[in-house]
């Protein structure tokens, strides 16, 4: 079984308030969010838009609830903007996370991304990178990885629906084109499964480079509707395509087994963007926590 000494359990705030669609959970406060995270049995969180920007204020609020910061999302634009612009923003982001005690920095390339376009069909208009863009992305990520290393941190790349690195083939190319000592992988069950890939295959293939894990479940009936009706990513989220482990269609047993047999040490982050008016965040956090206890033993 997985070891409590090696694994830290966290949950993302996106189940309470959606940063990309503020109307989802707009009324839920930062304090309610982190209090319910602690109440449901988690020890960490990633950073949301409602979190204080001041390190002292954020630390105090989290310490009262015995929570810590695992990481935070960073949008890179290496394929569409000069590297220097991304680097300046990255250093500021890195330094904030370092002060909060985080050891990994979640990076996703948002050049050409359609994930935030409410009317753009997710599968029909999925972006592709050309050769020049792949070179810019790979070289830029290596440089950002060096910047992360300066603070004894690791860059973990987030493959994501609606971006140029979504499929297993694109993950292969990214891993092949980047330095394994500078660029690591964030493994997200939900994005792989929703994309039509086999999460276990990707996990086994890159287990040595995976340094951060997002546990996200998918409702098959909604995913099929998204493909059939050509919905966008945000429309898919509103329709309820994602949910927490233990409530959707994916069986995490094999995922936990592979991770148990590996040397993985780090965070498991439950992440399931849902409409809190339809899926009570505390209720679903508890569902996820109980499922992980039952299936992974932690």
From TrEMBL:
Gene3D superfamilies: Divalent-metal-dependent TIM barrel enzymes. It holds the Pfam family AP_endonuc_2. Its EC number is 4.2.1.44. It catalyses: scyllo-inosose = 3D-3,5/4-trihydroxycyclohexane-1,2-dione + H2O. Transmembrane segments: none annotated. It is an enzyme of class 4 (lyase). Its cofactor is glutathione; Co(2+); Mn(2+). Pathway: Polyol metabolism; myo-inositol degradation into acetyl-CoA; acetyl-CoA from myo-inositol: step 2/7. GO terms for molecular function: manganese ion binding; myo-inosose-2 dehydratase activity. Residues 40-280 form the Xylose isomerase-like TIM barrel domain. Keywords: Cobalt, Lyase, Manganese. InterPro entries: IolE, IolE/MocC, IolE/XylAMocC-like, Xyl_isomerase-like_sf, Xyl_isomerase-like_TIM-brl. One of its GO terms (biological process) is inositol catabolic process. Belongs to the IolE/MocC family. PANTHER family: HYDROXYPYRUVATE ISOMERASE (PTHR12110), INOSOSE DEHYDRATASE (PTHR12110:SF41). This is Inosose dehydratase. The gene is iolE.
């Amino acid at each position: 079984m997985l070891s409590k000494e090696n694994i830290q359990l966290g949950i993302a705030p996106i189940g309470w308030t959606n940063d990309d669609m503020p109307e989802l959970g707009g009324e839920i406060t930062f304090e309610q969010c982190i209090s319910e995270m602690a109440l449901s049995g988690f020890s960490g969180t990633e950073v949301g838009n409602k979190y204080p920007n001041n390190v002292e204020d954020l630390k105090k609020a989290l310490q009262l609830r015995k929570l810590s910061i695992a990481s935070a999302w960073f949008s890179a634009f290496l394929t569409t903007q000069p590297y220097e612009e991304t680097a300046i923003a990255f250093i500021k982001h890195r330094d904030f996370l370092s002060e909060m005690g985080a050891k990994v920095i979640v990076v996703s390339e948002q050049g050409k991304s359609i994930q935030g376009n409410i009317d753009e069909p997710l599968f029909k208009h999925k972006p592709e990178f050309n050769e020049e863009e792949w070179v810019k992305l790979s070289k830029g990520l290596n440089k950002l990885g060096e910047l992360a290393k300066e603070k004894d941190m690791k860059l973990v790349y987030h493959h994501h629906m609606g971006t140029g690195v979504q499929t297993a083939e694109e993950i292969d190319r990214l891993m092949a084109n980047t330095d394994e000592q500078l660029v690591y992988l964030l493994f997200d069950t939900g994005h792989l499964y929703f994309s039509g890939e086999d999460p276990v295959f990707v996990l086994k293939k890159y287990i040595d480079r995976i340094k951060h894990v997002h546990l996200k479940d998918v409702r098959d009936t909604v995913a099929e509707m998204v493909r059939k009706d050509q919905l966008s990513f945000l429309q898919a989220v509103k329709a309820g395509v994602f949910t927490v482990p233990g409530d959707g269609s994916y069986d995490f047993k094999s995922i936990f087994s592979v991770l148990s047999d590996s040397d993985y040490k780090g965070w498991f982050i439950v992440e399931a963007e849902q409409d809190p008016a339809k899926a009570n965040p505390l209720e679903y956090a508890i569902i996820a926590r109980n499922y992980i206890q039952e299936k992974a033993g932690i």
